[in-house]
Design brief:
The chain is about 85% helix and about 0% strand. It is an all-alpha fold. It has one domain. The longest helix has about 55 residues, at about 1-55.
């Protein structure tokens, strides 16, 4: 009986705490990766815009 009291009071909250920390860490890492990807995409678009402004090209549509 004492073992079950120990299990409920000590082990389970500790494990839950660790699980919550791991989940928060995963969430935080995912948001960092997303922000890095967004920044890379913004840089790519800026480079494309600069290239387009430097070299204007005429597109001709064929009927």
């Amino acid at each position: 009986m004492n073992y079950f009291k120990f299990l409920i009071t000590e082990k389970i909250p500790y494990r839950l705490f660790v699980i919550v920390l791991l989940l928060l860490n995963m969430l935080f890492n995912n948001t960092n990766n997303v922000s890095i990807n967004v920044n890379e995409e913004i840089k790519k678009h800026k480079e494309i815009k600069e290239e387009m402004l430097k070299e204007p090209k005429i597109l001709i549509e064929e009927n």
